[in-house]
């Protein structure tokens, strides 16, 4: 909260410059048609940029996940 100020109503004001500089997180998906990687954010149109296919698969993590069962 470096650039925050309280206004008269007791609400916090945030600089618009800081809001614009933040990038939306993008998730990598694999196209079901051509198999190429596509990065999509929350507001993106779900369509492959290479072939136009509309079915995607979420990319899996490469590292091994191991859970301890009780």
Automatic annotation (TrEMBL):
Top-rank taxon, per record: Eukaryota
Family: Belongs to the archaeal Rpo12/eukaryotic RPC10 RNA polymerase subunit family.
Protein's UniProt name: Dna-directed rna polymerases and iii subunit rpabc4-like
Pfam families: Zn_ribbon_RPAB4
Keyword field: DNA-directed RNA polymerase, Metal-binding, Nucleus, Transcription, Zinc
Organism phylogeny: Eukaryota, Sar, Alveolata, Ciliophora, Intramacronucleata
InterPro entries for the chain: RNAP_P/RPABC4 (IPR006591), RPABC4 (IPR039747), RPABC4/Spt4 (IPR029040)
SMART domains, A to Z: RPOLCX
GO cellular component: RNA polymerase I complex; RNA polymerase II, core complex; RNA polymerase III complex
Subcellular location: Nucleus
Principal location class: nucleus
GO molecular function: DNA binding; DNA-directed RNA polymerase activity; zinc ion binding
Gene: Contig2865.g3068
GO biological process: DNA-templated transcription
